[in-house]
Structure formats: structure tokens, C-alpha cells
Fold these 3 entries.
Entry 1:
Amino acid sequence: MQASFVAISRFILALAADATFITGCASAYNSGISEKGPNTYFLEIRTPNSKGGGAESSRQAKAQAEEYCAKSGKTARITDEETGPVTADIFFTCVAK
């Protein structure tokens, strides 16, 4: 009886580990930059905690905003930002350097 309990416990632990791995990998998200008005853009990024969470999401969002504006010879100005445990939502405009 004890051997079957150990086997079942190992099986459940393996399933939990697999679910954690799959969830962590699947939770990364990038909305892409979308125009919300004249020279007003929005971007949402989600990064799993295991990959840096909200801080990494914020870093990536700001870098993408800068890259986007640099294509037109401008720089990004963040007009609004909300950072959560794993997400960063930013609104930005492109302004002259």
C-alpha cells in the first residue's frame, strides 16, 4: 500500500511540474504596437515571473517603443504606464529628439 501511495505522489508531483512549466511558457504575451489616436500608441507585454516578470515586461515595452519611434528619427515619450507582477501596459508618443 505504501509503494502505491509513493507512486501516486510522484505521478501527481510530475503532473504539477509539467503544468507549471507549460503555464510559465504559455504566459508570455506581446500585443504588438497599436495606434490609439494621432501619434498615440499602446503596447502590452506579459513576461512570466521566471523570466523577470513586470520589470522585464516594462523594459521590453520601453525598448520596443524606442525602436518604433527611432524608425521615424524620433524618440519615445511614455505618457502612461501600468506595471503589474508580470505585465506592463504603456501608452507612448513619438517626439523629436
Entry 2:
Amino acid sequence: MTDRGLDDRGTVLVEFALLAPVFLLLMVGGAQLGVAEIQDLQLTSTAAQAAACAASGKPACPNEAAVTAWLEGQVPNATWVVQMPSTAPCATAQISGSISSPALLLPSFQLSVSACAP
């Protein structure tokens, strides 16, 4: 006969049930932070390139509509606002963008970039 007081067959299952959700949350949270960082870098880089092109007056960026179309082609799930006022002594371009991840539990990212070319 075995002593029921010393039987620990269910201990591992109980420990797993207590610790598995914590590890799962850490892994999913780390993945979401990685996606958020990639989106932030993508927005920043794309907006900086567009602002520099718009401020320089290159033929590829003649007006706000062309810059907005290029931005939407680069990051299609983002919302862009492009302003290209021509003020002396330099031409400026101000670009604002935001992106949200509906599949993830992350808030939307917003940024603003401006460039000036003499």
C-alpha cells in the first residue's frame, strides 16, 4: 500500500498551469515590442526620405499629392499628412504619419518630420 500523503504526481501539472501563462505573456509581449519597433523605424525612415525629397524640389516630388502617393506606396497601412509650404530662405516640407496595428494590442504610433533645403 502507498501512502497518499506523499504522492506528488500532480505537482508538475499544477506548476506548469501556474507558470505557462506568465511565460506565454512574456513571449507574446516581446514579439509585439519587436513589431512596434520595426513599424517605428519604418515610419521614421520613410518620412525622413520623403521630407528630404519634398524640400529639395526634385522632379520626383513636385507636389503634396505625389509625395503622399509615394509614402502610401512605401507604408500602405499608415496615414500620412504632407505639407509643402514654400517659404524663404528655404523650402520646407513637414510630414506627419501614424500607423496602428489592429491585430496587435499596440497603440498607434505618430511622428512628425520636417526638412529644409536651400
Entry 3:
Amino acid sequence: MFSNDPLKPQVNLTLSAKVNQFATYPKKIDLYGMVGNQISQTVEIIPNENFPFKIESSTAHPGTSISVKIDSNDKGYLLTVTNTRTSPGRFWEKLILKTNSKIKPEITIPVYGTISAKN
């Protein structure tokens, strides 16, 4: 920090803070498997007790390779993300969860997939 004090024109400041996490959820979801097999992953979203919220809707963008099912439990939510591709290849989707929270009205989770051909 700069000051007008001629004896200490510059002072170093150290700041620290405790940051509360809004919710516990995965930073990404990976789907790997072979064409024709059921490929899905179930993940938990657990709201911080200081920031309660409800998931109001979910959307996948572009929405061509996955489907999403949301169930609630006593801790929060279970999301089951399932591959819908019928051909081999890689994909990237963005799962967008709309919440009723003013702090974080949207949770975005990237979904990566690699679907292999049968040998």
C-alpha cells in the first residue's frame, strides 16, 4: 500500500479470509464406456447449511449427448447423468442447474465423455 508518510511511503499488507463454500459438488463429470452399454454417473450436491437452496431445474447444453435425473435426499441432491450417444466419439456438455438462491442462482458442471466402438 502506498502512503504519503515520507518515512514509510510503501507498506506491505497481508490479508486473509475464511471463505465458506456454497455447496459441495463435483468440478466435472466424466462418462467413459463402449457404445451400447449403459454409461452413467451419480454425483451428490450438498448445500452448505449456511446457504440452503433448492434445485429448480436442470438443462444440458447443447443437450445432444446426456440426460439428467435429479433426486433429493436428506443431505441434498443426487444427480444421475447418463450418456445418450449411440455412436463412438468424444463430447463435451455443460450441465446447468438453476437454484432458488440469490447468492448463486446457477451451478454449472462440465460433463466430458468418450464413447468407444465395440471391438
